[in-house]
Specification:
Layout: E1 3-8, H1 12-26, E2 31-32, E3 41-46, H2 51-69, E4 75-80, H3 81-93, E5 99-100, H4 109-117, H5 128-131, E6 142-146, E7 148-149, H6 160-164, E8 168-169, H7 172-184, E9 189-193, H8 202-205, H9 210-217, E10 225-228, H10 238-246, E11 253-255, H11 263-268, H12 275-288, E12 293-300, H13 307-320, E13 324-329, H14 347-370, E14 376-386, E15 389-393, E16 405-408, E17 418-426, E18 431-435
Parallel strand pairs: 1-2, 1-3, 3-4, 4-5, 6-9, 9-10, 11-12, 12-13, 16-18
Antiparallel strand pairs: 7-8, 14-15, 14-17, 15-16, 17-18
Helix pairs in contact: 7-9, 9-10, 13-14
Length: about 450
């Protein structure tokens, strides 16, 4: 029987896709292995959102090509965004790749592998019930659930709509069913993901329904934390804010990609908001939600960004003091409208502007973390360092994105537990704490 291994790169949406791929292949009697060197078939689920992601995906492919040349791997399959975007070029440059599957055709991967290997493992045809299931190879007590595909926003710097297509919501029933299955497998923290979660439901139901989805998922026993990623600012609406406010399972964590605050740059980016609307949204969240955490991202060095535009962004960051912030230098991507805009800045200037904002944010983060000393917080345990040291996260921190809490305790703590921790010290982005006296085995 053929064994397969999946290399997953890029965002958590790709992680979910890889788990669907794994289930599909296992349903056809192929065997999953977590050891690449033990696999007959290597599948690379790639990313190409920005230049760095593209390079990482290509490097991973070349590593596997070397294994194929050594006779360790028989077949290489490239799927995901890189395959969707650059199939013709890669087919010429890397002939060792046996199969290219895009961002939607991977759903038929068992058919393609059947044709490729001529190895009829069971039926090559797909059962819809099987298609909708996942093999939770990377899901533990934390699980991602993709509530939609595609994007309608058409930001000028972004290639995603051309790769993924128009926005397509999944039904509430299908998402609740999947969340129930994830809970039964031990998931405690459920993270809702999409290119734009705030738009959920508009295509299916004619109106925004993220608040309804949250309400239904929160009824599932075992799900203790619900985190939402990637809500576009113009899509956040009153019913959603209210549901986050009253629903104890939904974390007060607002992941909102703002990207800029200069109205001129926002317009060139084709963002559907303005500085005034962004300010009003921040004020609304902070006035209506108890101890909210706003995580955002900004792009610096966008074509046409003047010193005045950049200083407007820098002053904004320093004034509104975001709890969590990511900063990216503009990445010039082919086949995007921004590629042909005038006023492109050189790489050094883009990097310098990134470093300036990061320095401002470091001081903001240090102050924010320092003000948490003495507070008692719920912390989900992610890992252990040694017998008396653990790593966890508060509601303020999404996995592999934000900060962590270093927990000192001689107790026998289990990974995935949610505990009360008293914060005793802080670092630039992380916290240090001890187990509260409330904890007792």
């Amino acid at each position: 029987m053929k064994k397969f291994h999946i290399v997953t790169l890029g965002c958590s949406k790709n992680t979910v896709d890889s788990e669907f791929i794994s289930n599909k292949l296992k349903s056809k009697n192929l065997i999953y292995t977590d050891n690449l060197y033990d696999a007959d078939i290597a599948i690379v689920n790639s990313c190409t959102f920005i230049e760095d992601a593209k390079e990482e995906s290509i490097d991973a492919v070349f590593d596997i090509v070397n294994l194929k040349k050594q006779g360790i791997i028989d077949y290489i399959i490239l799927t995901g965004c890189l395959s969707q975007r650059y199939e013709e070029e890669l087919e010429k440059e890397i002939p060792e790749i046996d199969l290219f599957l895009g961002t939607t055709s991977f759903k038929d991967i068992d058919k393609y592998i059947f044709s490729l290997t001529k190895n009829h493992v069971t039926s090559p045809f797909i059962d819809k019930a099987i298609e909708e299931k996942r093999d939770y190879i990377e899901t533990t007590y934390v699980g991602y659930i993709k509530i939609s595909e595609g994007c309608n926003n058409n930001c000028t710097y972004c290639i995603i709509p051309k790769i993924k297509g128009n926005y397509r919501s999944r039904t509430i029933d299908s998402l609740v069913h999947e969340a129930e299955e994830m809970s039964a497998r031990g998931v405690k923290e459920l993270i809702l993901i999409a290119q734009d979660t705030s738009l959920y439901g508009t295509d299916l139901y004619g109106d925004k329904k993220l608040h309804i989805l949250l309400k239904e998922i929160s009824k599932i026993e075992g799900i203790e934390w619900i985190r939402i990623h990637y809500m576009y600012p113009e899509g956040i609406y009153d019913e959603l804010i209210n549901e986050i406010k009253i629903n104890k399972k939904v974390l007060n964590y607002f992941d909102i990609p703002l990207q800029h605050v200069s109205d001129k740059i926002l317009k060139r980016m084709n963002r559907k908001t303005s500085k005034e609307n962004i300010v009003n949204l921040i004020k609304k969240i902070r006035s209506e939600i108890d101890k909210p955490v706003i995580r955002t991202t900004f792009i610096v060095g966008f074509p046409g960004e003047t010193e005045e535009d950049f200083n407007e962004l820098k002053n904004f960051v320093e004034k509104y003091k975001f709890e969590k912030l990511g900063i990216f230098p503009y990445s010039k991507e082919e086949n995007t409208p921004a590629y042909n805009l005038d006023g492109h800045l050189n790489k050094d200037k883009r990097k310098k502007r990134k470093d300036i904002i990061l320095e401002s944010q470091k001081k903001i983060s240090e102050e924010f973390c320092r003000n948490l000393i003495g507070k008692k917080l719920d912390v989900i345990v992610d890992d252990f360092i040694d017998e008396e040291s653990y790593i966890g996260r508060t509601y303020m921190d999404s996995p592999e994105i934000d900060g962590v809490v270093y927990i000192n305790s001689s107790e026998d703590i289990q990974i995935g537990e949610i505990l009360k921790v008293v914060i005793t010290d802080s670092l630039e982005y992380d916290l240090i704490g001890v187990l509260s006296n409330e904890y007792s085995k």
